[in-house]
Structures are given as C-alpha cells and as structure tokens.
Amino acid sequence: MSIKDQVIAIIADQAMLEPSDIKMDNTLADVGIDSLGLVESIFAIEECFDITVPFNANNPTESEFDISSIAAIVAAVEKLKAEQAA
Amino acid sequence: MAHSVKDIAAALGAEAFGAVDLLIEGASEPATATATDLALAMTPAYCDALALGGAQAAVVWAGADWQALGLKAAIIAPRARLAMAGLTQMLDRPLPADGISPHAAIDPSARIGRNVRIGAFAVIGPDAVIGDNSWIGDHVCIAAEVAVGTDCQIHAGVRLQRGTRLGARVILQPNVAIGGDGFSFVTAEPSNVELARETLGEGALTAPADPRWHRIHSLGGVVIGDDVEIGANSCVDAGTIRATQVGAGTKIDSLVQVGHNVIVGAHCLLCAQAGVAGSTVIGDRVVVGGKAGVADNLKIGDDVVLGGGSIVLSNVPAGRVMMGYPATKMQTHIEGYKALRRLPRTLRDLAKRS
Predict the structure, then answer these.
(1) Which of A30, A34, A46 to mutate to test the interface with B (most CBs of B within 10 A)?
(2) How far away is chain B from the Cα of A44, in angstroms, using its nearest Cα?
(3) Which of A78, B35, B115, B262 has its CA 20 to 30 A from that of B8?
(4) Into which CATH architecture does domain B3-91 fall?
(5) How far apart are CA B161 and CA B334, in angstroms?
(6) Domain limits at A47?
C-alpha cells in the first residue's frame, strides 16, 4: 500500500468513513475529525510509519506539519518518511 | 395545536420561505416525517433522508436548495440547536392543569399558592409552602417546612426532604432526591483515610482501635436557585450546618451526586454521573463533563471545563480546561498522552542503539 493509501486508511478509520469517501482536497473538518480526533490520527500515523510528527496538539495550525488538507498530510508524511529514514 | 410555518419561524427568529401558511402539527426526523410534520434537517447529512419522508416543510441548513429537496416551505435557522430550543418549546404538550388530586395528602398547615397542581398520592407536610403556578406530579413527597418557589415543575416521585428551599421556575425530573442526609461520618481517632492523605500512601495502614463511624447529622438543608433543572434520579444532599447550594440557572443531568455542603455557582452544567464530594465550592459557568468527579473540600474557579471522566484532586484556577486522572490542564494531559503513545517506539529505538 502506498503512503497515500495508508494515510487515507488511517483518516477514514478515525472519521468512520470508507477510504473511497475521503477526497484529497478534503479538510479534516470536512470528514468530521475534530481536535482530539486529529491527535489520534497523528498517533496512528506515527505508529504506522515509525516517524515522529512535529505537531503542537494545542495549536495544530501552527505546527510544521501541514494538516490543511488530506493531500497536505500525505505530502508531509512522505517528506517526514524520507527525512527520518535518512 | 397546529402552527403555521410563518409563525414557527417568527417564534424562532428565523426566516421562512415558500408556502409559509402551511400548518404544522409536530416535529419529526426527516425520514419518518408526514405531510403535517416539520422535518428537522439541520445539516446536509439529512439530504437523502428528506426524500424518504413525506415532509412538505422542514427546518434546513443555511444555503440549502430547499425547492430541489422537494419541499413546499422551509425555515432556515442560523444556529440549528438554538432553533430547537424554541421549536420544541412551541410543539411541546402542556402539563395537565387538573388542580389538586383528591388522593393527595396535604397537611392543613401547608400554604398552597394560586393555580397550583398537585398529583395523586403526593404528600405535602406541615407548614410547607408551594408557590403560585407550581406543578407537582404524582407520588411527590414534600417534607414539613419545605419551600417551593413559583412556576416550578416537580415531576413524579421527587422527594424534597426537610430544609429544602427551591427558587422560581425550578424543574425537577422524576425521582430527584433533594436534602437527603450528607455522607458525613467521623472516627474518634484520625481515620485511615486521613492517614493516607497525610502520608500520600506511604507505609501500610493498620486496623484502628475503634473502627466506628460516628454520624454527623445534616441540619443545613439545601437551597436551589431560580431556573435550575435537575435530571432524573440525581441527588443533592443536605448541608451539615449551612445549606448545600445550587446557583441560579445551573442545569444538572440525570444520575448526578452533589455532596453535602457543596456550593455550585450559577449557570453551571453537571453532566450525567458527575460527582461532587462534600464541601467543594464550584464557581459560576463551570462545566463538569459526564462521569467527571471532584474530590472534597476543593475550589473550582469560574468558567472551568472538566472533560468527561476527569477526576479533580486539587484546586483549579478560573478558566482552565482539565482532563484525566488525576486531572491536569488539558494541554499538559495531551503532552503526557503524546509521550505515552510514543514510549513504545522510543524504547524500541533505545534498545536498537545499545
């Protein structure tokens, strides 16, 4: 499974939706994930990809980790995975 | 009683569109609505459900294309939940106004106000006072000298014990018990509870020479402010010397325990299974989440929010959001949780390095 598909599977799991319902331009709010749901999604991403996500749970929009859309999250995970594997 | 779509919208301070003279007899979920129901479709998620039902009129989300949804009339409410407050009030059936039941046992010295309703098998003790327009359900017990304010609704099975005073417009759901004696007992020598607190659990506790719990009587009663609502089977215990207090406008859910001598401020929310232990003082506008607990003799500041299941063991300053057991600042809690979730991977990484 690609990083994109894995991220979508994690988000879908948290949003209680089918992966096919998640669109790349969706925001987390679009799929019904709130702040605590975001924290859980980040942990799931960390555990799945064995990476550390630099996020500020108290102010997620100010984190280095871009969560503005599903596409942004996928891109951020791909970047982290490349960096942290190196 | 039927209301026109136009009148309902006016009462809600919302805008009505289309055939605004359509008459509405009740409210319904969109999928099960009939032609005389107002379907409640406050979010786009109800789009498909509307088509399943037979509603001609609905409360819809802002920006909805109500004509395309097959409706003849629509109400658009900017804040859906607030509209529900007005709407449900309008469509609710009034309580029966059937006077005083011949099966009620009312002491001749009790002072019953004007336009009071008292249900069957209600018992009203000597010198109790019931304010004008109050509605007392069946099987309600109101002890001697208890004072009930005006315009209260006391539902079936409620017990108001001695020393209870209710403000105006108080609503008590079935089986609320107010003014039961506090859970207040003392030992001759310092008890194991006191020792555990003092030593923070250091060393083993031993059997006390005299294990008896001496009862501290509850003489203080309970004062409930105006516009308080208390849910089914909740309890507010009597104070020891002064009254246990619940401030004006506070709403208490079902199965909540408020201990003796507690002071709850105004406009608080105490959600189901919350518990507040003896002598704790809770500020104004505090929200105590479901199953959250507050230990005894603490101070909780104004505008505090305690997340569901939090257990508060120390004082909380005003405006703080708390989570967890022991409850800490939500930010601290999430940081700690983050570290906990990362711990297995951190340990694995450490093991790899060694």
Answers:
(1) A46
(2) 10
(3) B115
(4) 3-Layer(aba) Sandwich (3.40)
(5) 43
(6) 3-85
